[in-house]
Amino acid sequence: MKKQVLALFLVIAVALPLFMLPANAAVTKTTLELSSKTATFGVGEGVRFSAKTNSENEITWTSSDKTVATVTKTGGVKAIKAGTATITAKVDGVTAKMELTVKKAPTAIKAKDITVEAGKTQKIALQFSSGSASKTKKYKSSDTKIATVDKNGNVKGVKEGKTTITVTTYNKISTTLNVTVTKARVNYPPISAKKGGIIKFGGYDWLVLDIEDGKAFIISKDATKIGIYSSLYRENGKWSSVTWETCDLRAELNGEFYNSFSAGDKERIAKTTVVNNSGNDTTDKIFLLSTDEAQTYFKDENARKAYTASGDSSWWWLRSPGAFSSGAADVDSDGSVSAFRHGVASSGGIRPALWLKL
Question: Across-strand partners of 328?
C-alpha cells in the first residue's frame, strides 16, 4: 500500500509542472543567420563574418574546400586560391551557408569621377584589373568639409566645392577620384501659373507672358518704381552712347532689386541670355522687355498700359536703344511703343521682367 501511494506521488510530481505551463507556451526554435549569403574575395584576403542566433550554444564553422578558403572557429575567412567554396555555420543542428568566390588579387583599380549635389549621396563605381576582386576597401576624403565617404563607398556632398577621394584595396592597391559637389537645389513649393494670368511673387504682382519648360516669363503688373535708364556723361565733346549692357538700370535690377528677394525666391529666378539689338548680349536674372517683346507679348496698346503704386498712368522703359545714342525705347502711357521720346536720364516707369522656375 505504501509503495502504491509513493508511486502516485511520483506521477503527480512529474505531471504537475506540465499542467502548470501556459496554454500558449511553445518550444523556442533555433534561428541562425549569416551577415552575408554571398561574397567575393581576392587571393590572400581575410574577412571575419558574423552569425546571428538565438541559441546560447557555440557556433561551428566549416569550409567545403580548404584549398580555396579556410575559416576559423570564430568565422574568420581567408582566401587561399581562386575558386569557389561554401562556408557553413552550424548550431543546434541548424545551418546557414555563404557561397564564396575567390578571384585573383587586384593589380590595378579605377574609379569614375563623381558629381553630387550637396546633401545627396552617390556610390563610387570601381573597376578592378581583369579577373580580380577586393571585398575589403578603405575610402578617404581629402576634405570632409566638401564631401564625406563611408566604409561602403557612399559619397555624401557637404557643401559646394571640389575634393578627392582615395580608394585602397586589401593588398594596398589604390586610386584617386575627383569629387565635385554642386550647390543644393532648393525644394520650393510649386506656383500655379497660366499665360495671361496674375501671380504673386516676392511681394509683387506679376503678369504671366509665357510658360515654357517649367518656367514662366513674367513682368511686373505695373511699374515697381519711377527711375532713370542711365546717367549721361560727355565724352570727347559728345554725349555718351548708352546700351542695355552698360546702363545703370541693368546694374540696379540685377543688384539692389534682385537682392531684395529672399534666398528661396532668388533660387527660383533663372539666369537668362538677353539678346540685345545694340551692344553685346547679356546674362541677367532681371531685365526689361525689348521693343519686339513688348509688341509680341501684349495683344494691343491697351494691354501695354501700366500704372504707378498711386494709380497714375505711367510710361515705362524698354531695354532696346532709342533712335538717338543717348535715348532708349519705351512704352508710352497710351500703350504705344516708341524709340523717339525719351533720353536715358528721363524718369520713367520700371517694369522688371524675369523667367521664374515654377
Answer: 321, 342
